[in-house]
Amino acid sequence: MDVLEEIGELTRSGQPFALATVVWRQPPSSSQPGSRAIITADGELRGWIGGACAEPVVIREAQRVIAEGTARLVLLGTPDQFGGAVPDGMTVIPISCQSEGALEVYIEPVVPAPHLVVVGGSPMARTLATMGEALGWRTDLIDGPDFAPDMADERSMIVVATQGHDDEDVVSRAIAARPAYLGLVGSRRRGAMVLGYLADRGLPEEDLARVRVPAGLDLGPTTHQEIAVAILAELVKLRASGALSRPGAGPARRQATAPAAEAVDPVCGMTVPTASGLGPSGGDRGGRRPGLTLRHDGADYYFCCAGCRQAFEEDPDAYTRKETRC
């Protein structure tokens, strides 16, 4: 129930995450079929999916699922635990030598509903907000003076429809939110005046270039209802093409998350993260607990658990000869 509550909170806040569910286990794994955990985009795990050996693998695979937007079935164990008949499409990842158990985990991405922010009080603004809600999008209709940059983020789509009422100030605040989409409702002439004014006030050219004006598909002279349709059509088109979701793509300038550095545990062959930044649960962002490293003959070795490190310490030559170190 705690996991379900967390799902609701993350969904309402518009954060992408992955849901990992144990669908099969082989003893002595500490997990159980039906165990669930949420993994956020920055690698925080909430819930229970298994012990110290399973967690870092699930976190790493979940982050890939979030980035790719595609679910995957992961077997933590070895192919021979399925009699050598591993189903097509399953990802097989070795787990720690400290356990002979195995887990099959289904990891699925949960993509939040699009966030549409319409700034303005015109009939067109109200129509656009109503249409966004009809699509199931999280939609906020905000008066120009009430809008603040923290009301949107890099996943939001902002449409400024203030119709000449402090357009320059509202657009400036909207730029500060760095949304995935920023459109200004108005003629090209009016848009050029607004952007020219902001350029004279020192706003960077690259930020101003992200403002689409006029917002929406060009339908020529239309009614305010048709303008709302044109804007919504443009947003749907951009989202369908992926222009508003890929890091570095689309009107917004996004900061892509750098892949975590990894190494191979020389004892069990498991891939483990090497980052040293600690995450919320006391381990690093990849789930590895601090202290599971060892320097030997001038080289750093990384381990999935204390047992593997201890085995290495007792007979390092037995493992360095394997040359499995990254």
Short account of what is shown:
The protein is an alpha/beta fold. It is built from nine helices and 15 strands.
Q: Could you characterize the architecture of this molecule?
A:
- The chain is an alpha/beta fold.
- The protein has two domains: about 1-110 and about 260-310, no CATH class; about 115-240, Rossmann fold (3-Layer(aba) Sandwich), CATH 3.40.50.
- The chain has nine helices and 15 strands.
- It has helices at about 1-15, 55-70, 125-135, 165-175, 190-200, 205-210, 225-240, 305-315, 315-320, and strands at about 15-25, 35-40, 45, 70-75, 90-95, 100-110, 115-120, 140, 155-160, 180-185, 210, 260-265, 270-275, 295, 300.
- The strands form four sheets. The chain has a six-stranded mixed β-sheet with strand order 3-2-1-6-4-5. Strands 8-7-9-10-11 form a five-stranded parallel β-sheet, sandwiched between helices. The protein has a two-stranded antiparallel sheet with strand order 12-13.
- Helix 3 (about 125-135) links the parallel strand 7 and strand 8 (about 140).
- Helix 3 (about 125-135) crosses helix 7 and helix 4 packs across helix 5 (about 190-200).
- The relative contact order is 0.11.
- The model is unreliable at about 245-260 and about 275-290 (pLDDT under 50).
- Rg, rounded, reads 25 Å
State the end-to-end distance: 41 Å
Q: What is the count of distinct domains?
A: 2
**Helix content estimate:** 25-40%
Oligomer description: single chain
The total beta strand count reads 15
> Given the C-alpha coordinates, what overall shape results?
elongated
Beta fraction: 15-25%
Helix-strand pattern, N to C? Answer: HEEEHEEEEHEEHEHHEHEEEEHH
Low-confidence stretches: 246-259, 276-290
**Mean pLDDT across all amino acids:** 82
Strands in their spatial order, largest beta sheet: 3-2-1-6-4-5
